[in-house]
Specification:
By secondary structure, this protein is mainly beta. Helix content is about 10%, strand content about 30%. The chain is built from two helices and 15 strands. Strands 1-7-8-4-3 form a five-stranded mixed sheet, with no helix packed on it. Strands 2-10-9-5-6 form a five-stranded antiparallel sheet, with no helix packed on it. A three-stranded antiparallel sheet has the order 11-13-12, with helices on one face. α1 packs antiparallel against α2. The protein is elongated. It holds the Pfam family CagX. Belongs to the TrbG/VirB9 family.
């Protein structure tokens, strides 16, 4: 499903990012190898035109005249507001992160690093194999294709495979099975949305529990109910709408509602 929501990003929405203005005479960095192997999804009005990195810094190119939204790094530890520097026509973020979020109110765009691409030199940590499509909405959802990608290099390799198939019924059932397999807690109350998402295909992930969960839920991003995982230090998984931030103060102990 292609969304056609266009939002005006107002200055109050930019409080999560602190821009460092630079003059027109900034010096470009020395020649480097750039990795463009990033996947963009979510709200197009907030997304950059492209994202790439050189192993140390990440560069985002927004459309001319497009306001820079609030930028956040996303990892297993949660979200972190990022300062940025203007390097016209680019925005520079220090570091290389598994995923970046661009937020404007309740709207979200996402840039996901897919692993070492043609310009990158780091070996992939694992592979995602898929055969078929998971449904990304309610009973009559349009199937959304799982990306065929290498896992993020921030995730350690794993010999454990996490498989999903229509025989398991829904994404919630898959996450329950995976959590038991990995020693995590995922109870019915930890699925916080009101809809179950049926599976219409198979997928297999080998880069670890958190990466597998993130990749499975990423298939919902362009559907009616985009979802994201929240991982907690006591090995509890919650699934929430992509439009809300992971609440680190929520009761997530075993048996908590």
């Amino acid at each position: 499903m292609t969304r056609s929501v266009f939002l005006l990003c107002l200055p109050p929405l930019l409080a999560g990012c602190l821009a460092t203005p630079t003059g027109p005479g900034w010096t470009p960095p020395a020649a480097a190898s750039y990795d463009f192997n990033w996947r963009l999804s979510g709200e197009r009005a907030l997304a950059p035109q492209q994202v790439f990195h050189d192993g140390q810094d990440t560069w985002l190119q927004f459309a001319p005249g497009q306001a820079v939204p609030a930028l956040f790094a996303q990892s297993a530890q949660g979200e972190r507001a990022l300062p940025y520097q203007s390097r016209d026509p680019y925005v520079l973020v220090r570091g290389v992160w598994p995923a970046l979020l661009m937020r404007g109110g309740s709207a979200v765009a996402r840039a996901q690093y897919l692993g070492a691409g043609q310009g990158g030199g780091r070996a992939p940590a694992g592979r995602v194999e898929r055969d078929g499509l998971p449904a990304a909405g309610e009973a009559h959802a349009v199937p959304v294709e799982l990306p065929r990608v290498d896992a993020s290099p921030a995730v350690a390799p794993s010999s454990v495979r996490y498989d999903a198939s229509p025989a398991q019924g829904t994404m919630r059932a898959v996450l329950r099975d995976w959590s038991r397999q990995a020693g995590w807690t995922f109870e019915p109350e930890h699925w916080t949305v009101a809809v179950d998402i049926p599976l219409a295909g198979t997928a297999s992930f080998s880069e670890g529990y958190e990466a597998a969960v993130s990749e499975l839920l990423r298939a919902t991003e362009l559907g009616e109910q985009p979802l994201q995982p929240c991982f907690y230090a006591n090995r509890v998984l919650r699934v929430v709408s992509l439009r809300e931030a992971c609440d680190r103060t929520a009761p997530v102990g075993e048996g908590a509602a």
